[in-house]
Amino acid sequence: MRKLPGGYNRGAYELREREGTRAVLKWRPPRDPTELEDTAELVRRALAAGWSTPRWIAYGTVPDGHEYVIEELIAGARTATAADADLSLIARNNRLQAGLAADHRRNWSRHIWRVIFETDPTVEARLEALPATAVVLDRVRALSRDLREVALPTSDLVHGDCVQDNVLIKDGTAYLIDAEHCGKGPRAHDLATLLFEATVGGHPVRSSTAGARSIAEECIAQIGREGLLLCVISTTIEFLAFGLDHWTADVPNVASRCGELLSALGFD
Known about the structure:
CATH topology of the largest domain: Aminoglycoside 3'-phosphotransferase, Chain: A, domain 2
Number of domains: 2
Number of helices: 8
CATH architecture of the largest domain: Alpha-Beta Complex
Order of helices and strands: EEEHEEEHHHHEEEEHHH
Strand order of the largest sheet: 1-2-3-5-4
Distance between the termini: 50 Å
CATH class of the largest domain: Alpha Beta
Structural class: alpha+beta
CATH superfamily of the largest domain: Aminoglycoside phosphotransferase (APH), C-terminal lobe
């Protein structure tokens, strides 16, 4: 067993059986075990519908309650970039997520709403304490003031962490790995997360203006401009809060890029 690169939490480990079969092991703190079974069923259903994600080989809990998932390893794949060709492959896979999760328990539409309108007081206080993030927080508060009644879809499959490091490209197919956070909601949220990371995040390859516009237009076609704005705002709040814990020194620069993205999308 060897630890694979990447991962802010407990990481991922490659497993090898004696006959050479390779897989990936991940685990997480104790949660509701019925939710793990629910997610496993959603992954099975999505695979049957043609969605590209690694098959779950095994999953369960260990005696102390921690949950584990062993999924197939997509051998020979490379990590996605923000290049237009990769974005197109991800968008194609995203279309297969339509209507796949209506009865799933985890509700990403509700999560997005709560991040914006019921922001954790501790997170809010930390963002307000830093001038650069306070400016962004004030801006998204103003932009979201009249959006409380906007209804986001709750039937699509949402991966929940659609960042470049969680997308592998192989043989013209984009595979979304780490599907443990799958749930129901607007599939456009995954594209909005990808758009956000490709323009605001720190990856060396940036999407072209045309590529970023194409992703934004696909989101708008699915959930409208107000829906896209909700997805971008919730991702902005969570990303900046995450940055305060993991790359504090760069948060002011990231906050500035968040503002630039909002302007580029016409949210002024």
